[in-house]
Design goal:
The chain is α/β, with parallel strands linked by helices and 328 residues long. It has 15 helices and eleven strands. The strands form four sheets. Strands 2-5-8-1-9 form a five-stranded parallel sheet. The longest helix has 18 residues. 40% of the residues are buried. The mean pLDDT is 86.
Length: 328
């Protein structure tokens, strides 16, 4: 159930408590934690990319604990079948000996679903997430089953071990609200990690909010108005990711094949609204848009052959857009 309307002060207080609880377990990665929280409030899904051992799985588990949500983990492997995710029909016998088919829900029926190493499953299995991520439903044997609210998918993938993997298609990448890069910890952070994880008692996050609070925070954010100049800037920013657009900078025209979809613009608007509320403001500024531009656009820009051959990162393209696109 959605709670009653929140004030901006309550919004800030709940968000701060969630970040504090997650910070008890996760060392550093404050920016990643903030952006994951922004995506969850917006009702979006997140793709976490980083080398093994950086705490991506632990981050998702800790969030589920801090938010008191039903958590489910799916380890993606090449032999994973779609029914292993969505569920299947099983034959059940009642006390009178009558046999009927009954739907057995899969692990996708949870509030917070961790799709671990999502690029290790075949495209057929990856596509099982599409309907769930977009429609919040699962269809089995021509019957539509609704997923619980709230529903979030946080997927992880390893960028350095590509043998035996199946890169996510653009259509599925576009369904992720944010793509976040999890970086390696600094020396002092690594020492803190060792101190927390090599003792008898490891830190744990206590529940400080529930699904209703997240839904209420999302409703408050969606109710925020965005000034026309800010909305125009978002539209121009997304259009400038397309190489054929007149405002596209040289780096886009040279290295980009396809630019962002309208979903990228939606992510920019919702992300900017939530960033403004986290700062205690009801007015959305251009700086709020810039703050979420990298996670919202980096996975929605498709490089051409020249860009791939020269090892150009989409972050470089987005940064060039932010630097060169004038604010009117």
């Amino acid at each position: 159930m959605v709670q009653t309307a929140l004030t901006v002060e309550e919004f800030q207080r709940v968000a701060s408590r969630i970040e504090t609880e997650v910070g008890k377990v996760i060392v550093g990665q404050r920016e990643v934690i903030r952006y994951v929280l922004v995506a969850l409030i917006a009702g979006g899904h997140v793709l976490l990319e980083g080398v093994p051992g950086l705490g991506k799985t632990m981050l998702v588990r800790t969030l589920a604990s801090a938010l008191n949500l039903k958590f489910s983990r799916i380890q993606f492997t090449p032999d994973l079948m779609p029914s292993d995710i969505t569920g299947t029909m099983i034959l059940v016998e009642d006390e009178q000996g009558r046999r009927t088919f009954q739907f057995q829900p899969g692990p996708i029926f949870a509030n917070l679903v961790l799709a671990d190493e999502v690029n290790r499953a075949t495209p057929k299995t990856q596509s099982a997430l599409l309907e769930a991520m977009q429609e919040r439903t699962v269809t089995v044997s021509n019957t539509v089953h609704r997923l619980p609210r709230p529903f979030f998918v946080l997927a992880t993938q390893n960028p350095i071990e590509m043998e035996g993997t199946y890169p996510l298609p653009e259509a599925q990448l576009d369904r992720f609200f944010f793509k976040l890069l999890v970086s390696f910890p600094q020396a002092d952070e690594l020492v803190d990690i060792l101190n927390r994880t090599t003792t008898v008692e490891e830190p744990r996050a206590e529940p400080v909010a529930d699904g209703g609070a997240i839904l209420a925070m999302g409703e408050l954010a969606r109710g925020l108005a965005v000034a026309t100049p800010v909305m125009d800037y978002i539209a121009r920013l997304v259009l400038a990711t397309h190489p054929e657009h007149p405002e596209a900078p040289d780096v886009v025209k040279r290295y980009v094949r396809y630019g962002s979809s309208p979903r990228g613009a939606q992510a920019l608007v919702l992300g900017a609204k939530i960033m403004a509320l986290l700062d205690g403001r009801f007015n959305v500024a251009i700086d709020d848009v810039r703050a979420v531009a990298l996670p919202a656009l980096r996975h929605r820009i498709i490089l051409n052959f020249e860009g791939q051959a020269e090892g150009v990162q989409t972050d470089r393209v987005v940064r060039a857009l932010l630097e060169q696109l004038p604010v009117k």
